[in-house]
Amino acid sequence: MKKMKYVLVTGGVVSGLGKGVTASSIGLLLKECGLRVTSIKIDPYLNKDAGTMSPFEHGEVFVLDDGGEVDLDLGNYERFLDVQLTSDNNITTGKIYQFVLDKERKGDYLGKTVQVVPHITDAIQEWIERVAMIPVDGKEGPADVCVIELGGTIGDIESMPFIEALGQFSCRVGVGNFCLIHVSLVPVLNVVGEQKTKPTQHSVRGLRGLGLTPNILACRSTMALDDNVKEKLSQFCHVSAEHIITLYDVPNIWHIPLLLRDQKAHEAIFKVLNLPSITEEPSLMEWTTRAAICDKLHEPVRIAIVGKYTGLSDTYLSILKALLHASVARGKKLIVDWVPASDLEDMTEIENLDAYKAAWKLLKSADGVLVPGGFGDRGVQGKILAAKHARENRIPFLGICLGMQIAVIEFARSVLGLKDANSTEFDPNTRNPCVIFMPEGSKTHKGGTMRLGSRRTYFQVSDCKSVKLYGNRGFIDERHRHRYEVNPDMVARLENAGLSFTGKDQTSQRMEIIELPDHPYYIGVQFHPEFKSRPGKPSALFLGLIGAACGELNAVLQSGLEGQEKVNCETVNCPPNKKPNQNGYATKPTNIITDAVYSYCNGVHS
């Protein structure tokens, strides 16, 4: 049986250096070398999972197929590696301590004193070894390499048990099976323009003092490191100069795997892990093309995101990525206008007229409107006004989770004339509850009690936009995260007034997709399609929104129906051995959704 190889990514100096993107890019690079890759994210906080954490503190909660509510970095792993992870791929202090304490209560430790060392550290190591063996790429058998990202910064008190466990783990798996990549900061002082190595030196010294020695340094900086800077880092950090990589600022994160490849990071990792010579040089052709296309796009498409947490873009990270995937597929430069939902409300007009005017100006100038999910009543009235504006002015609209629910509420108020129509989440005593608490939900516990994970939606209408965007399939599987739903007792009245429920669950009692048939693009979904969007496989509904926003929805729908990509652009040259057919089109027989990134280069790279 082959031995698993492990690549650990740690961070130093400051948080927010991009460890997640670095770990994802390393995994992609190794995958392009012909290896099978899985990933684990370690979050040292005491929460069992990310489900109950504030988006302002931690960014979005990413949802997996199995219902796991996890750190947003697992979204990066899935998007870069095109894998399906499980909740066990996200290790937290809370999970580890609960696991150990459950064993203690059962008497598994035979009366011993339960301590951080060895019981907590052993549990961490056993968890890593167990999860690393679970295939996540749809193939049989374990992966070749497991990329582990340790959250936080070296020196954080809460990460100490994990540092100790990983130090023991490196000895446990042995030399040649463990590679440590330390992501650190090399700042440039504007006063003198000099790259300063001292922060990285101190970070590495602290890491070594804790029992871990880096094999490779990945240095974040505004520009490529000078050779003399690399030599200095090599001397003081005891890392070969060839194993010091610069991750300098780039126009978009799709360049990061290319930076790693160009600096031979894969060769350094192969050397540390005693892997045989590289069987496949990582060409990263798709990523090269995609990054170049993204850099050269100039025709804008403006999407207004009307939300509650617009002050932190990481709160809607997967939505931003899904919009980007779709806009690149349509050859448009994405411009996101953040509209705080509460700024659209009448009260803001009284209290802060400038903010009110600015919010409405952004909304009215948008080519499309997206209302994402959320919890709580702050900003709900503003979201309802945004949905009304999009409906009445025939602006392309996509409502996700709560966004679908507020679209139903708005329709009931404006079209059915039910002025007090509401969700019981916001008004428990409403006489016209359009949205109600799900009967299986818990009103006493918040964590892990929602309707979570992949659920099946069955299309009810054969001739609607959503079914065409999904390639005329009878059903789809998408990820959910909600505890309220459209009231099934209201559905008949809403449908009679013109609101079409085009997707339902297997019982036909839970509403999943709404559409307005006579609107250019007005769709709401109870699920979160953004979580399954990939750079080369844009989400169908996001592709539809962008297509409608730039007046190309019919082309998107037709491409989905024909299953043939038409490639017609001059932004990126094809490789000499990849030419379009005689009509100037690529004839790759696939739905545009599955390979849309190639829609705007001169040919399909098969």
How does this model look, in words?
Pathway: Pyrimidine metabolism; CTP biosynthesis via de novo pathway; CTP from UDP: step 2/2. InterPro entries: Class_I_gatase-like, CTP_synthase, CTP_synthase_N, GATASE, GATase1_CTP_Synthase, P-loop_NTPase. The protein is of the alpha/beta class. The protein folds into two domains: 5-292, Rossmann fold (3-Layer(aba) Sandwich), CATH 3.40.50.300; 297-562, Rossmann fold (3-Layer(aba) Sandwich), CATH 3.40.50. Helices cover 35% and strands 19% of the residues. It is built from 21 helices and 23 strands. The chain has a nine-stranded mixed β-sheet with strand order 13-12-14-15-23-22-21-18-19, with helices on both faces. Helix 5 packs across helix 6 (160-173). It starts with a strand and ends in an 11-residue tail after the last helix. The model is unreliable at 562-606 (pLDDT under 50).
